[in-house]
TrEMBL record:
It comes from Paraliobacillus quinghaiensis. Coiled coil: none annotated. InterPro entries: HNH (IPR002711), HNH_nuc (IPR003615). Residues 11-44 form the HNH domain. This is HNH domain-containing protein. It holds the Pfam family HNH. Transmembrane segments: none annotated. GO terms for molecular function: endonuclease activity; nucleic acid binding; zinc ion binding.
Length: 81
């Protein structure tokens, strides 16, 4: 898994479009990322309180935040969490 390095079971896995379809991203494998469902939630989250709750609950570290911000930027979301 690209962000946390945790082992994932199938039920915890989400598929994310690195470049979203509405911004021209394709469904091809090179645009898809396999993510933990909670990390996926974090990437698309816009509510600050929910963002900080998720960061605390998931034990997100600074290098992980940087990767998540890169994903958020690609989605056209405010990068800094
Ligand atoms: Zn996504």
């Amino acid at each position: 898994m690209r962000i946390t390095g945790m082992f994932l079971s199938a039920s915890e896995v989400h598929c994310h479009h690195y470049i979203p379809s509405h911004l021209g991203g394709s469904d091809k494998f090179n645009n898809l990322r396999i993510l933990h469902k909670e990390i996926h939630k974090l990437i698309h989250q816009t509510d600050t309180t929910t963002i900080y709750t998720l960061i605390n609950n998931l034990g997100i570290t600074e290098p992980m935040v940087q990767k998540i911000n890169q994903y958020r930027k690609q989605c056209g979301l405010e990068p800094s969490i």
